[in-house]
Amino acid sequence: MRLALDAMGGDFAPANPIAGVVQALRAYGDFSVILVGDEERVRAELSKHDTRGLDGRISFHHASQVVDMVDSGIDSVRRKKDSSVSRAIDLVKEGRADAVVSSGHTGALVAAATIKLRTLPGIHRPGLAVVIPTETQGFLLLDAGANIDPSPEHILGYAIMGSIYVREILGTQSPRVGLMSIGTEASKGNEFTRECYGVLSKAPVNFVGNVEGHGLFSHPVDVVVCDGFVGNIVLKTVEGLATSMFRWLKREMKISPIRLLGAWLARGAFLSIRKQTSTDEYGGSPLLGINGVCIKAHGNSSPLAIKNAIRVAREFVFQKVNARIVEAIEQHHEEVSAHQVK
Amino acid sequence: MRLALDAMGGDFAPANPIAGVVQALRAYGDFSVILVGDEERVRAELSKHDTRGLDGRISFHHASQVVDMVDSGIDSVRRKKDSSVSRAIDLVKEGRADAVVSSGHTGALVAAATIKLRTLPGIHRPGLAVVIPTETQGFLLLDAGANIDPSPEHILGYAIMGSIYVREILGTQSPRVGLMSIGTEASKGNEFTRECYGVLSKAPVNFVGNVEGHGLFSHPVDVVVCDGFVGNIVLKTVEGLATSMFRWLKREMKISPIRLLGAWLARGAFLSIRKQTSTDEYGGSPLLGINGVCIKAHGNSSPLAIKNAIRVAREFVFQKVNARIVEAIEQHHEEVSAHQVK
Questions:
Q1: How close B134 gets to chain A, by Cα (Å)?
Q2: Nearest CA of chain B to the CA of A139: how many Å?
Q3: Which of A46, A187, A213, B46 is the 20 to 30 A CA-CA neighbour of A340?
Q4: What is the pTM of this model?
Q5: ipTM confidence
């Protein structure tokens, strides 16, 4: 597997992407990497690491520009043609790489991937699929922000793609799909979710109906589909609240020596939850529906998160997730056509 | 102050509404209550409590029906004319009560209040305003689900009403208002939030821009406005995740005796956070914009939550929140007209 790594994207680039890929090269022997970005800075950063034995698996591709967080996604593709993320996508388009990992600007990755690689046959819009950990096992939320104003057909695509991803990568057979809404009955929600409910009821997925905010954590499903606006709000609200609760607990624990002692004795409990909810462990979120493999890592990714994003990219390529998606979509369209002929 | 209490609404009715109002009658000497619901059941429930000295402040209003959770809000008003929530609203309409408290069906309360009491002059839709506690002080979220498909003008009304409520009831001068969106820049979000951003930028409130899910808990504002679909999802996601995290921590603490001991030593920290985040403490969520005082208590309200919802109803009446809202809306419209004449 040949990986194009956006070495300049993210809050801690190039340090963390480089540190993460070195960890990944040591952990997985089955891939090589092209480091995309300002070659001088990338080489300087890489020289801080021990790369003995890895040199044959590392190459460089210069890109002179970096997308800023203030750039709009589409503009970044048009105006910064030599950005690290655009160049990394170009390498996939030209067949010189099999997958891209980037912790940079989400909008830029989505725009560059959609424009340059296009979507899979039968899929009209990509969706960002993020694993949200819970006390049981977690669920896949999509779309988490790639497509702000989708149609019900796009949501159908997310349900199919999410189910395949969960089955192939996370190993859950017959994943349950829920539609993010308010109220569990089919009649609840807004006009858009009611339309989606109708479409999903006839879809070749294990659709279990609407899921509410409470239900995400008490009766979790495996795949939660929604528009990218709602999905992004849910994702960031969950991340924000979880971070805040840990911070708040820490502050409360520091109030007295007795509490501090208690916290120390019970530290295993906190560490266990922190580990299970760490974005570092999940690492990468696939942009599903792109005719190529694009994994988005969190903007503040640690080296471990980058390493795990690379693990996800490898699994995505080796499990041939895109081929599975294309098969499922084709089969669905054939069934719909056959039904219409009858 | 004369309160009409929906004695039959909620998951634990009539037990908890009755127990809560008895607590409130003892705590606050400045109100009387009309218990609305099946009179026989209500009297039987009340007889379980010591009401010595309170009898002159308690009266009854029979209502033969109860709205079920499966009823739609509008249908419940049309078909269940003798429901406890509709009858309680009728008492306000007829001038026989100053405020309603209900822990029943939100949609039924919103529909009955909107149809029977109408909205305040200059306000076109009511919004449900819920206090969400945070590690700093909490924020008011509205709309939390009364109005699924609002216009930007409705959102403007929420910003004005929310600011007045926070100032008059929670005591925060010049409350900061944020618009729930994705991305903090004005250009981010969807078409609806971009329109709202423009309207709010010219509004007579302290508008500080978009707020994201992360920002709700790290740089909190005082009032967060959004459509009722997004607001309800945010509310329930926050409640669901917070409950889940406490449950998860508890399970992890029980894994070993050492952890259990630690948890016991540090119990003050957990209790402090639990108390500060308890919906019992906040009690009631006002339905802002109704020409009357309607307080929604959580469906699973404890007696303490009912008592605190009654506290909120009293404050709402005594602080003349609705008169303040009407003044602010009139002033805004005069300023807009004066501006247009120029």
A1: 8
A2: 13
A3: A187
A4: 0.93
A5: 0.92
